[in-house]
Amino acid sequence: MRQSMTIIPTLREVPSDAEVKSHQLLLRAGFMRQTASGIYSYLPLGLKVIQNVEKIIREEMERAGAVELLMPTLQQAELWVESGRWNSYGPELMRMHDRHNREFALGPTHEEVITSLLRDEVKSYKKLPLTLYQIQTKFRDEKRPRFGLLRGREFIMKDAYSFHSSQESLDEVYDRLFTAYSNIFSRCGLNFRAVIADSGAMGGKDTHEFMVLSEIGEDTIAYSDTSSFAANIEMAPVVNTAVKTGEAAKELEKVETPDQKTIEEVSSFLDVPAEKCLKTLLWKVDDEFVVVLVRGDHELNDIKLKNLFNAAIVEPATPEETKEILGVNFGSLGPVHMKTSEIKVVADAAVQMLENAVCGANEDGFHYVNVNPDRDFPAVQYEDLRFIQEGDPSPDGQGTIKFAKGIEVGHVFKLGTRYSESMNGMILDENGRQKPMIMGCYGIGVSRTVSAIAEQFNDEKGLIWPVNIAPYQVHLIPVNMKDEAQKQLGEELYEELTRAGYDVLIDDRPERAGVKFADSDLIGMPVRVTVGKKAQEGIIEMKIRENGESFEIPVGELLERLK
Ligand code: ATP
Ligand code: MG
Ligand code: MG
Ligand code: MG
């Protein structure tokens, strides 16, 4: 590619609204531009990098037996109503309607679409297992879009879904995709760690996140200093608190409060076994405590708890909404934030209520009147909570817990029958019986991965792309385009390298040497080949971006040296 023919709008100044290195550098190096909050255009260099990451993903996905397809971005509300997520997904779902006033959403993820597709096309266990993936633009109306591509509102995701007739088959494909993910992030050159992402899975089998270790990561990882144990801290405390709240829950039955429902009534209202509907989880987010009342059966763990927490903090529901969603009137007992159809997230003021009286009135006109924490029931002692901490023994009994920050670039998940049950995705099994398909889902943030790479590979001069990811492998710079010898040798090398299969960017602009070199360092191709004053003697300079080493070589040696 000729620089004179493309657009690489480099900036000398650090854009004021860009807080982190990757965001600053991707803007400064002319890889992208923001059009609106969390929405970006990928300029030619940015697109190349995206495509290189996609290429690695495609190769590894295909190797793991996954097949590519492409589903629509526009999804009709009916599908989301069927799964129950139209109401529960919350404000991150970008909703809209067509000219006939029919409701739609811009897909943040595709469980609904793919389940509806497969339920119509696959009727027998004989067609399974099947793993399908796509690479596509996703939309999430994030409350706080930030750090450039790391948290966008429009971003590129690779999402895959697997379908099975047995748990063993799911386990096998999950393991295969786990390996594929490890390969993908290794090939991207990233320093990452696979971590347990879910409370129900402290055994570590059912969901993992792939975390790039980075100071700017929004997640905290608790890991053992001697074993392979690693968990997302947002999930780690659950091990401890679940037990505690389990016990606290038992006492609930003893609490005598006006209008209180019995455990059995709540259980039948929530349609969950009694012992399960009493499992509450306590969490601390931004110094605010929230209670999550979890229906304890396993599929529910697929709901992204962290999403819920974000939503819980930023979008408090009105008491009316709460009542509509929860079916529980919290009356004067304070704000209830949000929930999905199966998980109820309640904030601070409602903690006491939930801890002590999970069985709140759930019928019209029923609510607690004149009930005060401490007087009518004991207030929760926050100090009693046990959050996992640095220095704790690792849950696997090996080593001590340390903390690190991570960027979630991938997430693999055993969904089970969460979607096939709610959306009627049935197949006939070996015995001719109808049963729901068992599913897994697997996501990679493609644009986020590009940012994570940029975050990890840079220096004070600019970006330093790993060879696999770099937009061009060679940056060819004829220093003075007015010098006939330089210009001509530059053109010859451009031809020769291109013919030899290299992706070459030639800086054929009539710019000063200083500008060309500064731009070159900023955009960060792995190798720079400079054609300067010694062009006439057939001597050029080769410089390695990563370590800054440079050496003069005869033109004839270039191809050999590049190998
Ligand atoms: P996060 O916890 O960062 O909000 P998530 O858990 O909501 O991410 P998933 O639903 O697991 O995200 O989606 C799969 C992948 O998509 C994530 O692992 C991440 O790499 C990427 N991703 C999610 N949200 C965004 C976003 N707003 N911008 C860029 N990439 C994203
Ligand atoms: Mg997450
Ligand atoms: Mg999210
Ligand atoms: Mg996730």
Automatic annotation (TrEMBL):
| Keywords in alphabetical order | Aminoacyl-tRNA synthetase, ATP-binding, Cytoplasm, Ligase, Nucleotide-binding, Protein biosynthesis
Task: List the subcellular locations.
Answer: Cytoplasm
Q: Which domain of life is it from?
A: Bacteria
Catalysis performed (reactions): tRNA(Pro) + L-proline + ATP = L-prolyl-tRNA(Pro) + AMP + diphosphate
Please state the Enzyme Commission number of this protein.
6.1.1.15
Q: Name one GO cellular component term.
A: cytosol
State the Gene Ontology terms under molecular function: aminoacyl-tRNA deacylase activity; ATP binding; catalytic activity, acting on a protein; proline-tRNA ligase activity; transferase activity
Q: Taking every annotated instance into account, which residue ranges of this chain make up the domain Aminoacyl-transfer RNA synthetases class-II family profile?
A: 33-466
Question: What PROSITE patterns does the entry give?
Answer: AA_TRNA_LIGASE_II
Cross-referenced InterPro entries: aa-tRNA-synt_IIb, aa-tRNA-synth_II, aa-tRNA-synth_II/BPL/LPL, Anticodon-bd, Anticodon-bd_dom_sf, Pro-tRNA-ligase_IIa, Pro-tRNA-synth_IIa_bac-type, Pro-tRNA-Synthase_IIa_type1
Pfam families from the UniProt entry: HGTP_anticodon, tRNA-synt_2b, tRNA_edit
CDD domains in the record, alphabetically? ProRS-INS, ProRS_anticodon_short, ProRS_core_prok
Provide the primary localization: cytoplasm
Q: Name one GO biological process term.
A: prolyl-tRNA aminoacylation
Say which family it is in.
Belongs to the class-II aminoacyl-tRNA synthetase family. ProS type 1 subfamily.
Function of the molecule: Catalyzes the attachment of proline to tRNA(Pro) in a two-step reaction: proline is first activated by ATP to form Pro-AMP and then transferred to the acceptor end of tRNA(Pro). As ProRS can inadvertently accommodate and process non-cognate amino acids such as alanine and cysteine, to avoid such errors it has two additional distinct editing activities against alanine. One activity is designated as 'pretransfer' editing and involves the tRNA(Pro)-independent hydrolysis of activated Ala-AMP.
Quaternary structure annotation from Swiss-Prot or TrEMBL: Homodimer.
Query: What HAMAP family does the record tag this protein with?
Result: Pro_tRNA_synth_type1
Q: What is known of its domains?
A: Consists of three domains: the N-terminal catalytic domain, the editing domain and the C-terminal anticodon-binding domain.
- Name this polypeptide is given: Proline--tRNA ligase
Please name the source species. Answer: Pradoshia eiseniae
Q: Which gene encodes it?
A: proS
